[in-house]
Amino acid sequence: MEPTPPLGEGIPLAPFVKAGTDPQVAAIKQLLKLLDKAAKSARTYGTKNPVAQRFFQQFYDDLTSHLAQHSRLALLVQRNQLLFQNEVVYEPERDATGDSFAFKMYSDGIRELSFHQGLTREDLAFFLEALWGTPADETAPADVAVDHEEDDDIVTRLWAKNLETITLVTAEELVRASGFGLDELELQTQGYMSMPVGSLRELLDRERAAKTPDTEGSGSSVEPAGGNVTGGNANRNRRFQVNVVGYDVSDEEHEALTQEIQRETARDATTYILDILSAVLASEPSPVLLTKLFDVWDHVLEALIRAGQWTMLETVLTMLQEAETVRPDLSDSHKQQVAGLFDGLGRPERLKAIGVHLNRNPQANTEGLITLLLMMKLEAIPGLCSVLATLDTPAHQAVVMEALQTLARDHAEPIIRGLTDKRPTFVRNLLTLISRWNDARFADSVEKALRHPEATVRREALRILSTLRPSGSGVKLVALLSDSDETVRLTAMKVLTGGQYTAAFSAWSPFVTADDFYDRSPAEKRAIYQALKHTAADEAVPYWQGLLTEWSWTNRKKKEELALLAAEILGKLATPAAMAALELGQKKGGAAVRQACSAAISFASRQHRHTIPNAANS
After folding, report:
1. In the chain, where are the structural domains located?
2. How high is the pLDDT of residue 606?
3. What is the rounded distance in angstroms from the CA atom of residue 203 to the CA atom of residue 11?
4. Which of 118, 110, 5, 145 lies closest to 130 in space, CA to CA?
5. Cα 252 off chain centre by
6. Strands, DSSP E only, in 322-454?
7. Residue 537 CB burial class (10 angstroms; 0-12, 13-18, ≥19)
């Protein structure tokens, strides 16, 4: 097996063809990831930041380890890529061109970057500074001299430093070495950059060697491989010369760059600001600045709440919850600040802002809102009830109800107080909450809602009460026979019929013996008699028997209707007392009543015959 060539050496610069996985290539990719992190950290937070120093040290250690084995690492620079052995070893995300050090070098005319054995920390630090510049808080005072002009490009800065361990090949050098005055794109199309050499530096050395006889005695000097020349000022000013080539782009590349700029310009400003604040939280060492940062976060929460950006707010709150994990060095005062951020979520003005936003935007997306509400403290429950009372859209009401269902289950006092509110939709929503809890402790509170002025609320209260209290005294439900709404009265009778309630006939008597009882609808009278049978049983038999045998000249037809209904109910009751009453009516009632009594007795007999075999089989 042939020995593996050193990194960056002996590799032809043919068009990129992806080959099998090479451990050296994989190692270079990891190295450049570290370089990317080190460059971004130094650019954003300064070289003195602990995070930036950690990435820098890790990159330096790994790079020097590689250079100890292979002596040199040469990387070909393309517009937004770095290549090694025809493999792309660095390529940022599509939308990250502005943060790409490959693009930064390419735009300044660098076409090859090489690190050499013996690289020092100072050389590498200077390279990063030359690449991105020094952050504003680390720049030297105005009266202190600096090594380079603020507007110097990377090439000028590195040449001015005259480094031996970091060397470059520029587009200008390639053009000059071609000897034909071609620009860079023409060099590529004519195959000049695809020749079988180990690097662009070797290509330039060969071209210079070929030109040496022509230039002897001319007095011109040839720059060394590292760009080290005695004429430092000439190199510093070469980018101001007319024939300097930075980089050329095709129409397609220009269009791609235009689109990238448009995407970056269209980037959401709020997301960008939050990313910056999150990065500062993760790395800021100053306690004073951290204190100010948490004050800023409080304003951020306020702004997001008022804007209704619930999904983004959910992300921020989750990040703040994990602040102590991200920053285990937070002081007690900073931890109290974080806790205060969550304590302030349910402030009355913020709850009011939530309601205002939702009512102004009926179609607003509420994804993420439930997270905000559930992070509120118990003190926010009354405020949430107030928000629920003012919301117009059922979908928005459902979100607040979901939060209250969790928060207020064991702290339901505001819910109970709200049952006396005059707004029917609000009270029905509160009754729905109580129904979900399905706790009999709330039965007495629901019973009070039976006096609400809105019929729909009274019906809902009846329905829920039948679930929370399906048995016991039914006297208060019988009292609903005087309700002004027929549907409420029918619902009350249905509840009494379907449960295990008891009510003495004395509770029923004022209603079934009143003169206006005859005027009620047939459906209501039937429902009342059914409920009377279930709750009073034989106590009501004398009343029904009187209807069977009563003769009257007033309301004769209506009383006869009641007598026929009484016969039917007695047949269903089928107790000995009920059967005796039917037999008496069969003898003393009118023709229609006698016929009804006979039919009821027959029905009771059939029911009795079916009941006995079933009892025997069981």
Report:
1. 23-137+146-247, 268-395, 494-618
2. 87
3. 12
4. 110
5. 38
6. none
7. middle
Q: Are 177 and 208 in contact (CB under 8 A)?
A: yes
Contacts of 426 (CB under 8 A, 6+ apart): 388, 389, 418
Q: In angstroms, rounded to a whole number, what is the distance separating the alpha carbons of residues 176 and 189?
A: 17
Q: Residue for token digits 């039919």?
A: 599
Contacts 24+ apart (CB under 8 A), 334-337: 334/287, 334/290, 334/291, 334/294, 337/291, 337/294, 337/295
CA–CA gap between residue 84 and residue 77 (Å, rounded): 9
Q: What is the pLDDT of residues 343-376, one digit of tens each?
A: 999 999 999 999 999 999 999 999 999 999 999 9
R_g over Cα of the chain? 45
**Residues composing the chain:** 618
Residue 385 CA to residue 400 CA, distance in Å, equals: 8
Structure tokens at 533: 């049978």
pLDDT value for 484: 93
CA dist., res. 383 & res. 373, Å (int): 11
Q: Which residues contact 493 (CB under 8 A, 6 or more apart)?
A: 481, 524, 527, 528, 530, 531
| Rounded CA separation 121/139 (Å) | 19
Cβ contacts of 393 within 8 Å, gap of 6 or more: 358, 359, 362
Q: Could you tell me which residues are beta bridge partners of residue 256?
A: none
Give the burial string for 509-519 (b: 16+ CB within 10 Å, else e): eebbeeeebee
Indicate the helix (H) or strand (E) that contains 111: strand 110-116
Q: What is the DSSP string of 522-575?
A: HHHHHHHHHHHHHHHGGGGHHHHHHHHH---SSSHHHHHHHHHHHHHHHHHH--
C-alpha to C-alpha distance for 588 and 129, rounded to whole angstroms: 116
Q: Are 437 and 466 in contact (CB under 8 A)?
A: no
First to last CA, the chain: 91
Q: How far is CA 296 from CA 140, 219, 274, 278, 325, in A?
A: 29, 64, 11, 11, 20
CA 377 to chain centre: 20
Q: Give the dihedral sign, CA 50/55/58/63.
A: negative
Task: To the nearest 10°, report the CA torsion of 139, 141, 144, 150.
Answer: 50
Report pLDDT digits (tens) over 519-548.
899 999 999 999 999 999 999 999 999 999
Side-by-side strand order, sheet with 72-77 = 87-90, 82-84, 72-77, 110-116, 166-170
Residues 217, 218, 219, 220, CA torsion sign: negative
Over residues 559-605, the pLDDT tens digits come to 889 999 999 999 999 999 999 999 999 998 889 999 999 999 999 88
- Residue 72's φ and ψ, nearest 5 degrees, are -150, 145
- Quickly count: other Cβ atoms within 10 Å of residue 230's Cβ: 9
User: Exposed/middle/buried for 302, CB within 10 Å: 0-12, 13-18, 19+?
Assistant: middle
pLDDT at 71 over 90: no
- Beta carbons within 8 Å of 606's beta carbon, 6+ residues apart: none
2-48: pLDDT as tens digits: 443 433 333 333 333 344 567 888 888 888 888 888 777 777 777 77
